[in-house]
Amino acid sequence: MPSYLFWLFSTVMLIGGCAVIAFRNPVASALSVVTCFVGLAGLFIGLSAFFVGVIQILVYTGAVMVLFLFIIMLLDLKDEAKAAKPMLPIAGGIALVAAFMVQLIGILARSPNKIAPVLDKQTLAAAAGGFDAKSKIAITLGEGKLPDVHLIGHTLFTGYNLPLQILGVLLLVATVGVVVLSKRQAE
Fold first, then answer.
1. Which residues contact 180 (CB under 8 A, 6 or more apart)?
2. Domains, the chain, ranges and CATH?
3. How far is residue 155's CA from residue 169's CA, in Å, rounded to a whole number?
């Protein structure tokens, strides 16, 4: 990925993230999250993770943000009146940002400067040994190709199956809760 594209997509993400917390209108904040997701998808595509980039656009920007907008519209959120800003939350926010920056600098200072290995046919064929020889992943890796979708699915449903199921239940409970809250407000 050319460096100017990295900086472009990173800037789009940062502007979208800052706009989420800067806007008082919930719909404008939700649309700023869409901008942030588009920048993230551009970074994924720049890293040659085309499947993850496209899924980022389709799933998060398309489906999840539409769900968020429907929830915002169901709750019928109004603009909040601006109140006087006490200094304690502002100081707490600044302290939190400073603590995050100290941690980030500490991690980046200690992390080794490694370059990702080249994905040539020999490297991919060697990685095929970690999977069942008859599986689609091992066959595709043995051919010298990278099976993105199969690797993501294998990782999700073997190593992270329980968190994935819990996340689905949490999203369902949150959606049902919004519908219940909107019915109570209507009555």
1. none
2. 1-78 (1.20.120.1200)
3. 20
Segment among 22-26, 37-41, 65-69 with least mean pLDDT:
65-69
33 touches 68 (CB < 8 A): yes
Return the structure tokens found at 66: 């539409």
How far, CA to CA in Å, does 169 sit from each of 14, 15, 39, 43, 176? 30, 32, 28, 29, 11
| Burial bucket for residue 129 (CB in 10 Å: 0-12, 13-18, 19+) | exposed
pLDDT for 187 equals 55
Say how far residue 155 (Cα) sits from the centre of its chain.
17
Tokens coding 184 = 């109570």
Q: What amino acid occupies position 5?
A: L
Whole-structure pTM over 0.90, yes or no?
no
Residue 103 has pLDDT above 60, yes or no: yes
